[in-house]
Hints:
Distance between the termini: 48 Å
CATH superfamily: 23S rRNA-intervening sequence
Oligomer: single chain
Radius of gyration: 19 Å
Number of helices: 4
Low-confidence stretches: 122-131
Number of domains: 1
Mean pLDDT: 88
Strand content: under 5%
Order of helices and strands: HHHH
CATH class: Mainly Alpha
Largest sheet: none
CATH topology: de novo design (two linked rop proteins)
Structural class: mainly alpha
CATH architecture: Up-down Bundle
Amino acid sequence: MKEDQWNHRSKHFALAVIELVRQFPKDPAYWTIGRQLIDAATSAAANYRAIKRAKSTKDFINKLKIVEEELDESMFWLELTVGVSTEWRTSVAPIYKEANELLSITIASIKTSRNKQNNVPGTSYIVSRPS
């Protein structure tokens, strides 16, 4: 996926979460879920944006790992929302699906980056001639 597409999707995901939370009832159980859900979703989007400023492949991977954790946490809070009341299932389902797709893309990017990092010609393996 192109960087612009990922930026757009991650930002759209965060906005969808905010819109969902705005619909929550004024109930203490939902206050915690809503705050945590918004924190995780917006953090995933913001941290993805920060990837552009990675200083190395290792830094790039570390930033992707943060995105991975925040997306996974978002999914937890979405699951908890439905757990509190199944009336949210219809609203949560497309947001959860998007979180899962973004998470899959992030994990694939981490694996690809690690493979590239480990297979850089001239740095991974030093071959010397026998004397």
